[in-house]
Amino acid sequence: MIRNRIAVLQLDPSAESASRVSEMLRGPIGWAFSHSHVTSMRDAIQFIEGRTPDAILLAWPDETEAIDALMELRERCPEAAILLVLDNDDFEIATKALRLGAQDVLQVGEIRGPELSRSLVFSCERQRVQEKTKALTLEDELTGLYNQRGFYTLAAEYARIARETSKGMVILFIDLDGLKAINDRYGHTEGSRAIIAAGGVLETTFRETDLIARWGGDEFAVLLMETEETGREQILDRLNSVLMRFNTKMRRGYDLAMSVGFARFNPEDPRPVEVLIKEADENMYKEKRSRKVARED
Question: How confident is the model at residue 248, as a pLDDT?
Answer without folding.
Answer: 92
